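Researcher: Here's the sequence for the chain we discussed earlier.
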Amino acid sequence: MSEQNAAVEISVIEASLSMLNDNEKLHLIRKQNIKSRIGKIKQTPKTKKINFIAEYQDLRNKLSPLFSEDEKPEILFRPHQTGIISPIKNYKKLPKLQISPLLCNLKYADFEKTALALYADDITSFYIVNPNQVKNIREIYQLINNAKNIQKNKLYYIYDMDEFKKIRATIFKNFKKIAPNFQVRCQSFYLQNKNNKQPEISLTPYQRYCMINNPKYIFDASKPDIRHDVEMTDLQINQTLQLFRQNNQSFKDVLIEQNKKSL
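Model: Thanks. This is the structure I predict for it:
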């Protein structure tokens, strides 16, 4: 084995060891967070159960190009508890709106909600890596700096998902200040990529939750923590979009203007 190959292999092994050490440090804290979170959720009023298997299969049928036919999704009993931001070098500038053109076959309301949530995740990751970029919004800056379970090594950041969601919730509240052109860019992208020959697809809050988190997993919505997560995510998305709709032009108005220009 050459010295160069040996150095690469050592680097990979060290990165794996570092990840294991990071996970071990977070394990006990996550267990306490999970117990506390489930305890709080059990105290809240019971919500309507979701037939998550049927809804997930319906999602695969609606958006089949996004899935491999031989792919067997895994059922998750609770939301992910940790996440990784990697590689760090890709997070030097505020990320652009990135979403698959295939999702432009959704009804616009569902497309907008999905795009918003995915973009909020990207922005949250960006600010975790670059907290100084958000010094002008003190509540976000302080949340990141006070987070106890964000760890960094040479290759990636690892974070606790509960802390990530607290930061993201605050980003949702300040979204119009952070990304004032989101709605215009979202509408433009949708109109450019929409296939008018195909019927528009609608999503349930659970299906949208799967799309946002990872459509290759089935989230077990028979569990109260996942049902709670679905509802809170949907509430935060709707509240954020309401901030834009107070002043901005609606998508219906955009379509009317576009049709007038084409006459």
